[in-house]
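Consider the following input, taken from an annotated entry for nitric oxide dioxygenase (Lentzea kristufekii).
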Amino acid sequence: MLSPKSAELVEATLPAVGAAIGEISRLFYQRLFAEHPVLLRVLFNRGNQADGTQARALAGSVAAFASGLLAGQQPDAMLRRIAHKHVSVGVTAGQYAVVHEHLLAAVGDVLHVTPEIAAAWSEVYWLMADTLIGLERFLPRGQQDYKVIARFQETEDVVTFVVRPVTGPVPLNTPGQYVSVQVPLSDGARQIRQYSLSGRTDDALQFSVKRDGEVSRYLHDCAPVGSTLRLSRPAGDVTLRPGDGPVLFASAGIGCTPMISMLAELAAIGSPRQVIVVHGDRDQFSHPFRAELAQLVAKIEDAQAHVFYELPVGEWPAGRTGLADLRGVPVPANTTAYLCGPVPFLRAMRAQLLAAGVTDIHYEVFGPDVVSAG
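Applying the prediction step yields:
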């Protein structure tokens, strides 16, 4: 908990910091990369830096953590998500001090705060950092080389890769998790991206990649069968929870990858649970795992799929055109819901679920978590 004096100062300055947090985070990254340019080349996602997504996520997470401290509660889901992402890309405990130095300097440059206020926000930062370091200490980390043993063209712009460790067994993994893939780019940078597991066997992992961004383009163009890829251990906390109540998988676009993995798990064990699948895509030809979705739903006794296409090709059921929509889909209030897709989709699905009385909601977002961060 914050010390009483720091809590008083943070509460008094939170509106000002919140209003300027976007500018603070942008300046922070400018300072960080000016002094440590290697971090942008081998750790941080250059695309998320260019469009400001990472800055918004950082800003929102710090503000959300500070607000939670003042309210006497921690945003546990957000912290777990950040911890898994950090371990997946190789963030170390020592790097938190580097972030602290440049983040507090950015706060001072933007707001010209007094030393007492700077010390209060430093306390907020280290409470958050120490919590994350503690969480990350118990998560499996590390990278190893994998051989591409097969690849399949799912759609025009989605390829599935099946990979096997060059040495040793496949690490423990759970449906819903993701791996980080690091690739060498033409300018010498080694960029990292996360891809959800879309399947697995005892001796191989499977992940699927939409052609979107420099790392994904590299994988599409430069990772044939027989090539070697550098992968992290599987990570991620949005995994299939045990239980016997209804479950909902809602996805849009390539967000179907963790959903198809969890759905396959339920089919494999002959689950008696009620399963509701909702997916939205542009049309039938851009829908990854379209045939597999139908096959898996058919294997589960109490399962149904609701697929929405914005521009369907040919005949398609009335009421299933346009964006994915839960209105008209019966969803029991005791449902456990899993969501994955673009941020607007996640927010729309969450709002509709809450309106239906569903509160057990878990989601995966590709890239920085601007949803938890507000």
